[in-house]
Write a structure and sequence with these properties.
Elements: H1 6-20, H2 28-31, H3 37-42, E1 49-50, E2 53-54, H4 59-62, H5 72-75, H6 87-98, H7 101-104, H8 113-138, H9 141-148, H10 151-163, H11 165-180, H12 186-199, H13 208-215, H14 218-225, H15 227-248
Antiparallel strand pairs: 1-2
């Protein structure tokens, strides 16, 4: 199975976090006055959350130990009993534990600037296995090749990973249908994907309008469209080196 370029995946994931995922929430906030009435309704079923990663609902992303309870408030006291799946998950959640964010942070706050980038990188590393698993299950090899090599489509499917497997499967099926129709241009495929996303009834899917606006911004262009220029540098250096070698050894001279 082909895999996306690591730098491109990280850049796309950070764009998802910065534009579609929120800051910090802990269920303690529900009862101690740190939430407005509106936010109390929105967050009523959430566990401890940062950048859209839910420590309770997404338990299997972070821990090898089975979750003890489906009830958030029952589960919270058990977090010290769980064994982390990897160092990235451990560092991500223990950062919040050491900061005592559950008791001290305001709703929707984020780590300070010096730590935010590192935490987003950890979040990207955490979500990456889920993205690959979804891609293997729901994307043909042809679709994977297009998505993994075109930053805007990669961004779209990374966000679908946050949305959930049903969303990922839905968009993957539509992409394969369009590829089978002979539509091969990545930009055209992206436009179709956003059309599909924008005509669904789910509020999650209706984020298509925001995605279209984001794609036109310099931030997006710099992060995802121009990324491949850097991939060409090593190839250029190799080409220069080979040209020098062949010239030196007379391989380019007329016989």
């Amino acid at each position: 199975m082909e895999k996306p370029n690591a730098d491109l995946f990280l850049a796309a994931t950070k764009l998802v976090i910065d534009n579609f995922e929120g800051g910090y929430y802990h269920p303690f906030m529900f009862d101690n006055g740190r939430l407005s009435d509106r936010n109390r309704y929105v967050m009523r079923n959430s566990g401890e959350t940062l950048y859209g990663l839910d420590r309770h609902a997404g338990h299997g992303l972070y821990y090898t130990t089975p979750r003890i309870s489906k009830d958030v408030k029952t589960d919270i006291p058990n977090k010290k009993l769980y064994k982390y799946k990897n160092t990235d998950s451990k560092n991500f959640w223990e950062y919040l534990d050491k900061a005592n964010a559950a008791n001290l942070w305001k709703w929707n706050s984020e780590p300070p600037n010096k730590d935010a980038d590192a935490m987003k990188t950890l979040a990207s590393n955490i979500i990456y296995p889920s993205f690959l698993s979804n891609a293997k299950k729901y994307l043909s090899e042809r679709a994977q090749n297009v998505i993994f090599n075109y930053g805007p489509l990669l961004f779209h499917f990374i966000y679908a990973t946050w949305n959930g497997p049903d969303f990922f499967r839905r968009w993957g099926k539509r992409l394969d249908e369009d590829l089978n129709k002979g539509i091969n241009n990545p930009a055209a495929l992206l436009d179709l994907q956003l059309n599909y996303r924008g005509t669904e009834l789910s509020n999650t899917d209706l984020s298509a309008k925001r995605m279209r606006a984001l794609i036109k911004t310099p931030e997006f262009t710099k992060a995802l469209y121009q990324k491949k220029k850097f991939f060409l540098i090593p190839l250029l250096l190799v080409t220069i080196g080979l040209t020098y070698y062949y010239n030196k050894n007379g391989l380019f001279k007329n016989s």
